[in-house]
Amino acid sequence: MDTLPCSPEQRNWAYETYRTKAAGDFNIFKQEYASDPTTCFISSGENYFNVQFSVQEWVKGYLEYDQKQKYSTYVMGVDVASGSPSGDFSSFVVLDITKPEKCFIAASYYDRIPPSQFAELVWQTASKYNALVVVENNSYGLSVLEWLQKMEYPYIYRKVSLDKIANKFHERLGFHTGPHTRPFLLAKLQKWVNERKIKIEDKRLQYEINTFVYNDKGKPIASGKKHDDIIFATALALQGFEQAEDEIVEETLQQKPANIREVLELEAKTGVPWEKMADHFPEPQLNDWVNSKVIHSVDDIWEIN
Hints:
The protein is α+β, with helices and mostly antiparallel strands. 39% of the residues lie in helices and 16% in strands. Mean pLDDT is 81; it is low at 38-43 and 292-305. It has helices at 8-19, 26-32, 115-129, 141-150, 182-194, 203-210, 229-238, 241-252, 260-270, 274-277, 284-292, 298-304, and strands spanning 61-64, 74-79, 90-96, 103-111, 132-135, 158-163, 168-173, 198-199, 212-214, 220-222. It folds into 3 domains: 1-41, no CATH class; 61-211 and 220-248, Nucleotidyltransferase, domain 5 (2-Layer Sandwich); 256-304, no CATH class. Helix 3 (115-129) packs across helix 4. The relative contact order is 0.14. The strands form 3 sheets. Strands 1, 2, 3, 4, 5 and 8 form a 6-stranded mixed sheet that branches. A two-stranded antiparallel ribbon has the order 6-7. The protein has a two-stranded antiparallel sheet with strand order 9-10.
């Protein structure tokens, strides 16, 4: 864009369009807003994401990057495979979305495992993080949904639709993945990755991002015999933002701080000064502590505790 003879207004339009409508992907920008008859074609093998990572090796199994934090909000995306030794990987990603513009991976799983065992692992991890779980509601994902319901897990992504003929609302657990929803899932993930709204430490996800490309028809797919399982687990997690805010955030903030350190943690998570929250948490002793102590450093926090 810098080499084109553009006016300041055209440059502003190009940058805003590139950032928003093209999700920060220059390939999409060239295709949708071509400057000549040839640049509108995406070449086969071009990367879908505009970031690349220096990763060659990765390990299977469960990885934890951050422990459960009291005032944090989590969503969990779950992509389920058959468990075949030579098939796809079952994967989940737990995102900390407390600060939506700077979310990060708290835990992830990536391995070939029977759906029944994977379902129990999903339930255990979701319970640990109190996460809203977004599971695909077709194919092997149904076994995970069934297990979560059996264990009476309260936070499962659901879609409510209106049956106009019966004039009733129907609730369907999980997210349906298919040809119609695939572009939607990937576009949102692409935007978050390209705009650096999500911190990606997981090497499995890094590797799949590196090998996720456009094919000769312009469709984004995993190249060769590579995989896209943790890509879709992450994409599913991103679909849970709004419901996580509705179902989990309010309940999380009902947890009363036990000491000064937790008061500061609550302020940091919400961005709201304690003085404005004190009426919501009528704890005279705690309020007296906050009002009487002057905190200059982290050491002061531990001294008060």
